[in-house]
Amino acid sequence: xxxxxxxxxxxxxxxxxxxxxxxxxxxxxxxxxxxxxxxxxxxxxxxxxxxxxxxxxxxxxxxxxxxxxxxxxxxxxxxxxxxxxxxxxxxxxxxxxxxxxxxxxxxxxxxxxxxxxxxxxxxxxxxxxxxxxxx
Length: 135
Hints:
Helix content is about 15%, strand content about 40%. By secondary structure, it is α+β, with helices and mostly antiparallel strands. It has a single domain, classed as Small protein B (Small Protein B, Chain: A), CATH 2.40.280. The strands form two sheets. The chain has a seven-stranded antiparallel β-sheet with strand order 1-8-9-2-7-5-4.
């Protein structure tokens, strides 16, 4: 028999957390999305060589792309990847259509909150956020 799970239980462990996101932004909505990664990026991310500090996402040509997410080189790879290349986020078409309408409103942006393992997959928690006023 399988282990009973709560519906909101993501399981797995965090690979990277964007700690400043909740302090600098008001989070409106979150989504669990997949990341399209190369082989050396997956190995490096599992080693914990991933940073979300200045990362953000953009909707471009009906696809969602993650920018400025740094994934360091994998120590045992013969040919490594470019550390800060744009990475495609894997979402359903209806989710992307909803995002297009919401991100066009003034002041809203897409911020990654954390990268984590869910079974054998690497997932990203993406948030629709609005910048907080700094006094």
